[in-house]
Amino acid sequence: MQSHHARQSDWWVVRILVAVIVPIIGIYTLLEPFGRDQGIHATIAFALDEGLVTYRDVYNVKPPLTTVMHWVSQALFGHSMMAIRALDLGAATLAALGLVEIGRQLHRTPVFGIAAAIGFATLYYSYGYWEHAQTDGWAGFLLIPAVVLMLKAWACPNGRSRFLAMLGSGAILGVAFCFKYTIGGAGVLVFTPLAVNFLGKDEARFYFTDFLACFFGGAVALFVVMMTLATYGAWDDFIEIQRYVMSYVGYKGSDARSPLIGFQLPGMISVYLLVCVGVGLMLMVFDWIRNRRALVLVVAVLWIFSGWLSGAAQGKGFAYHFLPLVPAYAILIGFTVEYICHRTSGRAFSNAVAFSLLLGLYFPSQAATENMSGVRALRAANGDAVYVGNLVPFSDFDILETLEFAQTLKKHHGPDDTLFVWGFETMLYFLAETPPRYKFPYAWPFMVAHNDGRYDSDLLNRLKTVPPTHFVVQLQDATPWATGNPRSSEGQLQHFPELLAFLNENYSQIEEHSRFKLFQLKRDR
């Protein structure tokens, strides 16, 4: 049996391995195009860079840091679909390294650290292109450094160092909340020591000052965001939009998955990953029964609960809503692999067993399949086009047809031309490098079943004041699970007679694709 004692040099070897292996596992995502969500937020960030303030000048239903993340990606990597993928790959790598640090803080072995990190990458990259670079994922990533600081705090006596660590943890949770509101339930982790002491030995003590520090740190983070919005005159618009969006949670498609299914992530189509996660939880329970040490178990259970709650609270059953579960399941994978290796004799043999187990987890997974497809595409001269060409379209979204139409649009669209899109494919602004200057970059506010017409006059006044050069109407984009409305944008236009009259009176149709119609402002205007 192996000792849990590990040299610091061993941990540095693990960190280096993780920093290399995780980007290799996820490198193919640099070829991934936008999904609809990424297109929306990239466009809003592009508009911000053009001086259009989010919420005030550009309608946005998501929390504020989503736009910031996309803005940073474009500042670092340029105006391309690859930018957010590159930043997301970096964020995932840092998250994996954070799991290594959690292993160290929990006094596990380096095997736990590398297994948790590789398990995390395998689960995360078993998702598809629509799910990567999503706010749910980034909020889930941020739980990792928050937990690291909590573990550091619990290892300290009640005092300044402990208070600062909990303050930092709370601030990170506050930042995570500004990516995804439903992640707020993760605040329950601050009460971990109470459950630990109830269930077993005194591994960590709870002080009320822990809660106060965590709460204050989160409040400071939220205050900074609120003041930033107020400074740029966006606060009132932000609040109004959030109130309008609240009815969205009530929409649920007839084919929506049960929230309980959210526990099974896409990566678990690999039975090896499914078994490894389940076994890890059982082993934690057995370890608690045998040793009465519950810290690892309580952290894992509370993390799983808050991650599941974040997804279930959104009410749609989308797989990516449960992304915050990925780091928690990675900890279970780390525990399973460590347990097996701990029962072997000799360090070299133990490392060989760990290596074999991790290979056995990765290669049967969807992550490995996606990586191989990406590698084959990278070998082609036009790798991104090859990769995109192999993607399966959705009933309401086809990235290949969207990219093809964007090329058609650019043939007619000059550098000084303006654009308005009546539909959901906001990425057309981004692809045409034309910011959305009419506040409403997508038709969602006008499509929802609870639309009360509050935005109609605002949109019409903006369009009539400075009519856009080109007007796009989208077809086949009905999303009743997001709107409560079975009509497409083209169909909804028939129920907005003032906008339809404006279009008919001032525009001529010049192009028609299977999913888009392109109109141009009449020359006599």
UniProtKB/TrEMBL annotation:
Protein name: Glycosyltransferase RgtA/B/C/D-like domain-containing protein
Top-level taxonomic group: Bacteria
Residue intervals passing through the bilayer: 12-31, 76-99, 111-130, 136-154, 161-177, 183-200, 212-235, 269-289, 294-313, 319-341, 348-365
Keyword terms, alphabetized: Cell membrane, Glycosyltransferase, Membrane, Transferase, Transmembrane, Transmembrane helix
Segments forming domain Glycosyltransferase RgtA/B/C/D-like: 62-226
Membrane topology of the entry: Multi-pass membrane protein
Provenance organism: Aliiroseovarius halocynthiae
GO cellular component, as recorded: plasma membrane
